[in-house]
Amino acid sequence: MMNEKTKYLLIEMRLYQWIKNFFIFLPLVFGQKLFDAPALIKTTAAFIIFSFAASAMYLINDINDLESDKKHPRRRLRPLASGKVTTAQAKVLAYVLMVFAVFSSFILDRNICGIILIYIALNYIYTKLLNRVVIVDVFCVGAFFYLRILAGSFSSDVILSNWIILCTTLLALFLAFTKRLYDLKAAEGSKVVYKKYREVFLERMISIIAASIVISYALYTMDQQTMHRLGTQHMFYTIPFVCYGLFRYLYLIDEPDYTGDPTVTLVQDRKMQINLLLWVLLTVGIIYFKL
Length: 291
Fold this sequence. Notes:
The protein is an all-alpha fold. It folds into two domains: about 20-25 and about 35-155, Tetracycline Repressor, domain 2 (Orthogonal Bundle), CATH 1.10.357.140; about 160-290. Helix content is about 75%, strand content about 0%. The chain has helices spanning about 5-10, 25-30, 35-65, 65-70, 80, 85-110, 110-130, 135-155, 160-185, 190-195, 200-220, 225-230, 240-250, 260-270, 270-290. Helix 3 (about 35-65) runs antiparallel to helix 8, helix 6 packs antiparallel against helix 7 and helix 9 (about 160-185) packs antiparallel against helix 11 (about 200-220).
């Protein structure tokens, strides 16, 4: 039976955030290699490795933000901030996960190992410095997602469309700005960077980026190269699901029980889950079965 300390360490690793690492599978899906066994196995391995690296960086980030997290209405409940996990225990686990991620990625693919090292280095710089610089902190979040799909590109041996890279990066910026808006409204004595933002600016950025995502995705689905590469003209049928997902999320961020965490929102909101599932099924159906 799992003891209390192990339980709290697993919670501190934020396993639910591994959902973000499913972006690694985008090149596999859109590169028409979803049913290619070697590519699928390698991409799954890259997903697991990246997830351990991400958990290591979450631990290091929480150690660095320990004092501000203790004053935050939600983050003060995390095992480290609440004292259920010690700083020493969190550091040991972080370094073990980091070493495992680097070593296993080196065995899997040296290009993926390079991406893991860049991800760790950028995360460390972000934690120590860049997360206090307005706008730059949000662009760092976009870079983290780009590194995920780049790892997926190497693991599946697929050159991903620039449109998908653009859409993914814009989505990351959208989620980061909505999180900043939540923290600006909710956090007393939290991170310094949140106090530097203005609510009207964040709302403006969220609106601009949401519109940019819809336009970019629509242009991708109707691009001649996309239709030629995928062998279908029907990807535009997936546009309503992208629109609904964005509109639903914009609706949820104004709800009283919104947590500020997009992953938690996805896990808790049934309509978002159904919409995402339908988008995945329709996308796979169109690309692989030419619906």
